[in-house]
Each structure stands twice: as structure tokens, then as C-alpha cells.
Amino acid sequence: MPDQPHQRPFGLPSIGREEIEAVVSVLQGPQLVHGPRAKQFETDFAAFCKGGTAVSVSSCTAGLHLAYFDRGLGPGDEVIVPAQTHVATAHAVEFTGASCVFVDADPRSGNVDPDAVAAAVTERTRALSVVHYLGLPAEMTAINAVAAKHDLLVVEDCALALGSWLDGVHCGLLGDLGAFSFYPVKHITTAEGGMVLTRDAETAARITRKKAFGVDRTHGERSVPGVYDVTMLGFNYRMNELAAALGIEQIKKAAGFLQARAENTRILRAALAEIDEIELLWAGDKRFVSSHYCTAAILSDAVAPRRFEIVARLKEAGIGTSVYYPRAVPQMTYYREKYGHPAGAFPHAERISNQSIALPVGPHLAGEDMVAIAAALKTAIRDSAP
Ligand SMILES: *Cc1c(COP(=O)(O)O)cnc(C)c1O
Questions:
Q1: To test ligand 1's pocket by mutation, which of 65, 134, 183 has the most ligand atoms within 8 angstroms of CB?
Q2: What is the CA(193)–ligand 1 centre distance, in A?
Q3: Environment class of residue 276 by beta-carbon count within 10 Å: exposed (0-12), middle (13-18) or buried (19+)?
Q4: How many other CB atoms sit within 10 Å of the CB of residue 159?
Q5: In CA terms, which of 18, 66, 105, 252 is 20 to 30 Å from 73?
Q6: To test ligand 1's pocket by mutation, which of 56, 57, 94, 157 has the most ligand atoms within 8 angstroms of CB?
Q7: What's the helix, strand, coil split of the chain in %, to 5?
Q8: Quick one: fold of 254-383?
Q9: Which residues of the chain carry a pLDDT beneath 50?
Q10: Residue whose CA is closest, atom 6 of ligand 1?
Q11: What is the pLDDT of residue 1?
Q12: How far apart are CA 363 and CA 44, in angstroms?
């Protein structure tokens, strides 16, 4: 057997003794749901983002769904959605019966193009959906101007945007509300979990009811145990205490994780600059602080047909990669069958989806790993040549 190469996975949750002890202590107590930890995590999370009210939820997808559900969106309504995103961004709209109107990405950043958003508004448009692609804040100033002109709700998909700031404001506080993800490969994890963040305390209060069956009072507010009324429809989208205990420990470490990501990204981008066959997305200017989720290497047209061979060679070299995202959303079968957009309808999103390889920069890796990853990519591109 040849030696296993040193492994550099794409993502690896950073779980320490603190997280393990926090979870065990929940298990030793009586309260697995409705306890103090979810509240504590919400407070700590809003403090990290320096503003707003945070509402813990069971996932980012649940948070996005709540955002549209809360506004009463339904059949006949339209939401403008980026073509270049995770399907959850679009699914959350579809759950309500409203329709997605997809718009292409800005080829430079991968974020939604505000001019394309403005051009897609119709009299049926009710909301704008924005994703901060790979952690780089979208052009929210221009997007909010479109929203203000037509009185539209702005929902930010912040799944990759913990630690992303635009003009000193944390993502999620730029539009009407944002939803974050704590899925294992994201910046911090609660296994499964999410958070809604909003500047509007009333929206936060309504979402708190709607994530828990539409019950009119929380556990703590019930004078007679078990007695409550239900004043509206609601889901079961709560975060349990085990997840919240993880979140409390993880958010304490978030600044350190983000610093490691920023440093790794700097080293990786410098090393990748020497590879002629790839292009990198725009890293932003002073207004933009990215959360550096990963670095997408976009293969040139000549090399792109060999993408999966290059990925396989990287895997052989112990380097984990991913694809963000495997197809532009309108080209996923469900959306293609529903909306019928032909291939080529969203050329910039399709180019990024079809030609990029996402490289890891997480805090489980160090600067020397970045140099090794760039070198391995260069070798893989060379060795995959016909
Ligand atoms: C991961 C991800 C989601 C889904 O998050 P969950 O917490 O798993 O629901 C949504 N949007 C984007 C952009 C993502 O990357």
C-alpha cells in the first residue's frame, strides 16, 4: 500500500472540549428544548453582529421560509432570486407558492447583478432575495434602492456570511432580515441549525411565534403550565438546547475562525495567482469584509472540460474540494421542469457553476496547506492535459 497522502479536507467542524462539555451538561439537565441556551445564543449572536434581534431556528432554510411566510407570500407573487446560489434560497420561496424570477450573477463577484434585479421587477414582485456568494457581501446599496422604489421585502441568505460586513454593517442587517446556517461545513456549527437576524424587533417577535406553532406565549410566559392559545399558523422550526449549547461555544470562537480564514485566503490567492489556467472572483474593496467561506478557482474554457479529472487528482493528493454550486439553480431538474429556462439563459452563473472548483480555507488548515493546495492544483491541471 502506498502511503496515504496528508489529508486536507474541504471542511471540518472545529469542536473542542468546551463544546463537548456544554452538550453533556444539557443532557444532564431537564431541559432539551425551550431552555435558556437558545435565548443565550440569540443574545450572543446579535452581539457578534453588533445589532439587531436574533431568533434561533432549526436551519437557514427554515429561517428563509419564515421570512416569506411571515409576509404572507403566496401564489401569484414573485420573488427575484439569484441564479447562482444554493437551492435553499429558491426553495424557501417555492414553499409559499410564490414564483422565483431568476437573475444572473455579476461575473466579477458571483453576486447578483443589481441592474439585472431592477430589470426583473414586475407588478407582481413582492420581495428580493439576495445571497452573499461565498461570503462576499452583495451590492446591498443598489439592491436596497430597487427595493425602496418598489416597496419590496429584502431577504438576505447569509448562510455563508457570518463575519461578512458592508460599510461596517453586518450582513443580515442590510436588508429586512437575514438567515444564517450552522450546518457542519459553515463558519460555525450546531450540527443543524440557523439564525434569523433583523433590525426590526416586531418582525423578530412574529418570527419567534411562527417558528413554534403560532402559539401566543412562550414556555416562560405561561402562568399555568401547558395552557396556551394559538393565534396564527406556525411551524416547528425551533433550535433545541443541544444545538444552542454548541452555538454558544462556537460563536465565542468565531472571530478566531474568521481570522484564520482571512489569512489562509490571502496566502492561497497569492499562490493561485501563478496559475494561468484559472481565474479568481473579485475579493472586494475597503467597503467589503468577506467571511472567506472558500476560494473558487474558475477554470479557463480550455481546461474546464477536465474539471472532474482535476478534482479526482486533488482528491488523490488528499485535498478536499467542493463545487458551489453544482448547477445554477434554474438548471436543477425541478426548476428547469417548472420554469423551462434553456441552458445558457444565465451565462455568468452557469460559467461559475460549471467551471469552478471550490478550494478550502477553513481554520482546520494552515498557511503551508494553502501553498500545498495551490501546488497540487497546478500539478493536477498539468497532468490532466491530454
Ligand atoms: C448551506 C446553505 C444553505 C442551507 O443552509 P441549511 O442551514 O442547511 O438550511 C442555504 N443557502 C446557502 C447559500 C447555503 O450555502
A1: 183
A2: 10
A3: exposed
A4: 28
A5: 105
A6: 157
A7: 40, 15, 40
A8: Aspartate Aminotransferase, domain 1 (3.90.1150)
A9: none
A10: 60
A11: 54
A12: 21
pTM above 0.90, yes or no: yes
Candidates 3.40.228.10, 3.40.640.10, 3.30.70.100, 3.40.50.620; correct CATH number of 17-251? 3.40.640.10
Q: Is the CB of 86 under 6 A from ligand 1?
A: yes
The CA distance from 266 to 27, in Å, is 41
Ligand 1 binding pocket includes 181 (Cβ within 6 Å): yes
Q: Are strands 53-57 and 278-280 parallel, antiparallel or unpaired?
A: unpaired
Ligand 1 nearest atom to the CA of residue 325, by list position: 15
Length of the chain: 386
Q: Can you tell me which residue has the cell 443589481?
A: 114
> Which ligand 1 atom is the nearest neighbour of the CA of 180?
7
CA distance 135 to 90: 18
Exposure of 25 in the CB half-sphere (CA atoms within 13 A): 13
Ligand 1 binding pocket includes 60 (Cβ within 6 Å) = yes
Contact in structure between 78 and 126 (CB atoms under 8 Å) = yes
CATH 3.40.640.10 range(s) for the chain read 17-251
**Alpha-carbon separation of residue 131 from 39, 128, 154, 161, 249 (angstroms):** 26, 10, 11, 9, 26
Name the one residue in this structure whose C-alpha cell is 477536465: 306
Q: How far is the CA of 30 from the centre of ligand 1 (A)?
A: 31
Cα→Cα distances 36→198, 220, 245, 274, 356, Å: 21, 10, 10, 51, 43
Please report the pLDDT score of residue 2 as a whole number. Answer: 60
User: Counting atoms of ligand 1 from 1, which one is nearest the CA of 62?
Assistant: 9
* 85 close to ligand 1 (CB < 6 Angstrom): yes
